[in-house]
Design brief:
- With about 400 residues, the chain is of the alpha/beta class.
- It is built from 13 helices and 14 strands.
- It folds into 3 domains: about 100 residues, Glutaredoxin (3-Layer(aba) Sandwich), CATH 3.40.30; about 100 residues, Glutaredoxin; about 110 residues, Glutaredoxin, CATH 3.40.30.
- The N and C termini lie far apart (about 110 Å).
- Belongs to the protein disulfide isomerase family.
- It comes from Dinoponera quadriceps.
- One of its GO terms (molecular function) is protein disulfide isomerase activity.
Length: about 400
């Protein structure tokens, strides 16, 4: 059967059209699901609607490629319709005029735009998730929070229907003893807003139970308090006992589920207490924890090897078990103290500044109260031990 040339041309056109549409679908699936891509046509209109954190980038840029997964994770956490923040990006190889208007001279450039404003605030910190979320919290907090005058002493927390609203000044002391179920939140977070009435109901239902405290803290206002527990998303619900995180709650957020969780955690704690009372614990404290008030006296005699750290610091976490082992090696040695100082505590921040701590962890050696050496070597147990012994023996020979 002969084929009409016109029919052949039409069928070829349909095939080409089909292939084009298929490529659009495939490309559409490859686009970022969570992060909107802005152009010169929609950028000004979009940033007027709500707060924005924008990455100006180039696809060939290595730093941009490394930041990509973190930026997607940040967008997934933040880009809900109910939130007052949008994570977006602009491809400067396509939108060169737009990037030039916003003084983008290197990639990636990250800028925060407050709703309705056209001038962005440049982010200059490290490009990890905690630093990025802290920056967002700072920017949102600075536009919405009200600060207390410095000469007004903070009031102790007072429960409203069983729920305590904690601040940076009251947080640490409050959680230092007892059992606590704490909600770490941000006012702009949609999930937090949905949880709020249920959390109030939970606190109210347990208001007469002295065994547990239900509380909340606004991480946009009290960032350092939240930073102690590596809060990277909202809401985060933590079970805390005697100042230490025991568990992050990951279950359903209904009143019944939350209340059942509280009951189960109190029961576990009671079992542990019973087991401890049945057996004596003679494990010695091998590490000395110091603050600004105790530091001078704590290092005034002998050799003191001090770790200045932050609980959220990854390198500090990896060093922690080795530091404990180092303490055990020198336990009972009257001439050596293995010490740690938490620089995120309000009682230690000024001390860490005075000791010129500019990164975590910082390992300083003191002799009779005077700093004599900063350790920058390998952080394995043998090297740390040899370092202390060399300085101990050198002093003995003198």
């Amino acid at each position: 059967m002969a084929i009409n040339p016109a029919d052949f041309i039409m069928s070829k056109q349909w095939i080409l059209l089909f292939l084009f549409m298929l490529s659009q679908v495939i490309n559409g699936h490859n686009k970022d699901v969570h992060t909107p891509q802005y152009t010169n046509d929609n950028f000004s209109a979009e940033i007027k609607k709500k707060n924005h954190f924008v990455m100006f980038y180039a696809p060939w840029c290595g730093h941009c490629q490394r930041l990509g997964p973190t930026w997607e994770q940040l967008a997934e956490m933040s880009n809900e319709e109910s939130n007052n923040i949008r994570i977006a990006k602009v491809d400067c190889t396509i939108e060169s005029i737009l990037c030039s208007e916003h003084d983008v001279t290197g990639y990636p450039t990250l800028k925060f735009f407050k709703a309705g404003e056209t001038k962005g605030i440049k982010f200059r910190g490290t490009r990890d998730l905690p630093s990025l979320t802290s920056f967002i919290n700072d920017q949102l907090g600075s536009s919405s929070s009200t600060s207390m005058p410095e000469d007004v002493a903070p009031s102790p927390p007072e429960a409203v229907n069983g729920l305590l609203e904690l601040t940076e000044d009251t947080f640490e002391k409050h959680i230092s003893s007892g059992h606590h179920f704490v909600k770490f939140y941000a006012p702009w977070c949609g999930h937090c807003q949905k949880l709020a009435p249920t959390w109030d109901e939970l606190a109210n239902s347990l208001r007469h139970d002295d065994a547990v405290s239900i509380s909340k803290i606004d991480c946009t206002q009290y960032r350092s308090a939240c930073g102690q527990f590596d809060i990277m998303g909202y809401p985060t619900l933590l079970w805390i006992e005697d100042g230490k995180k025991v568990e992050k709650y990951a279950g359903q957020r209904s009143h019944e589920e939350l209340k059942a969780y509280v009951s189960s955690m109190l029961a576990k704690s009671a079992d542990k207490s019973n087991q401890k009372s049945e057996s004596t614990d003679d494990t010695p404290h091998t590490i000395v924890s110091l603050t600004a008030d105790s530091f001078k006296h704590g290092v005034e005699k002998g050799l003191s090897f001090v770790k200045f750290f932050a609980p959220w610091c990854g390198h500090c976490k990896r060093l922690a078990p080795t530091w404990e082992q180092l303490g055990k090696k020198f336990f009972g040695n009257q001439n050596v103290n293995i010490v740690k100082v938490d620089c995120t505590l309000d009682t230690s921040k000024e001390l860490c500044n005075e000791q010129e701590v500019d990164g975590f962890p910082s390992l300083y050696l003191y002799r009779d109260g005077r700093k004599i050496f900063e350790y920058n070597g390998s952080r394995n147990l043998d090297d740390l031990y040899d370092f202390v012994m060399i300085h101990l023996q050198t002093h003995d020979e003198l």
